Every structure is written in C-alpha cells, then in structure tokens.
Amino acid sequence: MAPTVHATRVKGYPRVMGAQGDIFPTFVTPSSVKSLQGNLGADFETVRAALQRCADTGTFKADDPQWLAFQALKVRVQAYLAEEPSWITTRDQMTRGELLQREVAGWHDRAKAMGCDAGPGPTLPPESSLPAFFGGAGLGGLAVIALLFLLRK
Questions:
Q1: Which residues span the domain enclosing 94?
Q2: Does residue 53 belong to any structural domain of this protein?
Q3: How many domains does the chain have?
Q4: pLDDT for residue 9
Q5: Listed residue (7, 75, 67) closest to 35, CA to CA
C-alpha cells in the first residue's frame, strides 16, 4: 500500500496543510502561492464572466446589492493576484488566498440565485489545520521570534 501524501493537489487547488488532525504543517513556498493565485484567478474569471453576461442581458441592475458586493470582492481579488509571492510573507499570502478562494467559490451559488450560471463551484481543500501557536506567524514572523530569542542571550 502506498503511503498517504498530505501535500497533494485537489482538483487543481493546492492543499496547504496536512490532513485534518495532522500536527505537522506542509512547507509553503512562493510557488505554492503562485499556483493558488492561478487557480483563484481562473475561478474568479469564470464567476465574473457569468455575472457580466447576466448584467449585459439585464438579469439584474448595476445597483443590485449583490453586484456591488461582487465588485468589492473583485477589488480584493485583483489586489491579491497582483502581489508577488515572497518568502517572507508566504504563509500570510497563502492564508489570505485560501480565504479569497473560499469566498469566490461561494459566488457560484450566489450567481445561480441571481439567475446566472457560473457552473459548479470548485472542490476546495479542507480547512487548514495549522496549530494555533503558528497561525499567521509565517516564515518572517518565526524568523523574528528566533532572532529575538538569540539576541536575548
């Protein structure tokens, strides 16, 4: 029987953490962030194109609260996609990207409720299981903690 690999890809989306309950996080690199950005961008474009087609045909008005909410999401997604992956902020970028990925995935159902067909939402990886001690610290934060520890001596 082949060993279970925890850092796998799930239908085009990178798994960032190990399986639920795994206490050892998967090492995240800038290429992991770049991959997530590509997947997020593709899914966002699918939803955006479906909503734009509906707006063009008059399915909803430009001042519809759902449309305005999507425009706010669009600004956040575009800002995230414009970021260059960095070793110092890789964990933070990955966390923010996963949150945006989940938000964009939810828009498949919201678009359908608005009368637009954005297709099925992507299969997302399970929630991260990063221990709370390391949550959000990222490589840069851990380096600062290590430096402070060393300077203390």
A1: 29-121+132-147
A2: yes
A3: 1
A4: 40
A5: 7
